[in-house]
């Protein structure tokens, strides 16, 4: 077998071949952005009232405005300071003959008995308006959104090891076909049950894009993995930002879904021309195919893989196989994360951070429609805040460390959302305060985006090689729970408007404080065994002091060499 790390060194940490492959695989994450936050638009809930014929018939009552109709037919809820569109005054509409003598605002109220009238000035049709997911059936909209994240959980079980067993390319192609099939199916679905089933299946297949992320991490050099890992996440953001433009031009949810599905079709053809991951091929002992792919990458990068390099790669693999034969004989499971007190505390803290990050991230993102101002602009600005946060992470993650960066981002998120709640409570109709509340909400999005980007990298460094996948799996499981719960927390605003963001803020601040109890991994070599990890958890401050001087030198070298290498090879 061939040790690909030696081949990668010869190919270059980064080159035209890796850049092309990374960008092509990252294109897949556009679909993740389209689908992940699609409900901001396709499940938008407009203003609603009861159908009240003939009072809302402009031929019979040509002088009545929408405000007049609401006033004459719909009870006003002083607690929420708005009309309750689920009810109307219980007087006989059949007696209304062009005059207002039939109107009785002192009458009792009843549920809408003639269907609903929706404000279609923003969207002509959404999932909510087509299936009447309001009033008594409003919970179905929350369930549908929550089931999307249940789909992620199912996908993690089905596709968790699929890419390792059958290949990165195979996994990505298969799941992309599933994603596109579900998206086109959604565009033509005509029942709420089918909508929920297809959204759940869509998320399940979407999880399979993990193969594209793993491929990217395998094809670039160590010092470029943070950059390209975060760049990959940026394509998710670009996806939901582009979704704003799509939803602005196509105002029917069927059309929105169909257009986004069409934009995903080119990926299938691009994926067919991308070769399989050479690292995976070598691991699976498919050396002939791995050599062929490696030579292709070398031609694109304009380097030569000499016989000497291939011999070194084979010798390196023999040495590694000998050194790791004893370590790999022991089988580890997720239960080993909880074998010692130190490991248990780190694992529980990691899981709590993943849960809070997912809960707050999706809570803030999915609730963009509740912010004051234009829905399309707010969703785009959310994306701008997320990209800005990623850039900050790229700049500071290796400078100030993971622990401080994670804590700072979580506190920014929590305090930003808490400030938004306080300002909005006292805003009333003050436009300046309303705008300030929106600004604080964007600051919250900035913070939670940065912390979510940080916790993933941090988790991979906190655990030894033999337990790393189990640890990421445990964190991912906790994150799925956060995503499932987020829509239900958002729904609490129907009863207490300030409650969801207050919950998000408190949890964000708590997670930020608890993140200070993590050991710092910046500049510390990857741990291989649980024994190494245990020793590190207890004495990480000593490790930190030893590595600080070397890290400072490495960062200076990295700043110069990375920029030079990128500029010369693009």
TrEMBL record:
It comes from the Eukaryota. Keywords: Membrane, Transmembrane, Transmembrane helix. It holds the Pfam family Sugar_tr. InterPro entries: MFS_dom, MFS_sugar_transport-like, MFS_trans_sf. It is a multi-pass membrane protein. It is found in: Membrane. The chain crosses the membrane at residues 146-163, 170-188, 194-216, 228-250, 256-275, 345-364, 376-397, 404-427, 433-459, 471-490, 496-518. Its main location: membrane. Residues 63-523 form the Major facilitator superfamily (MFS) profile domain. The keyword Membrane applies. The keyword Membrane applies. This is Major facilitator superfamily (MFS) profile domain-containing protein. It comes from Clavelina lepadiformis.
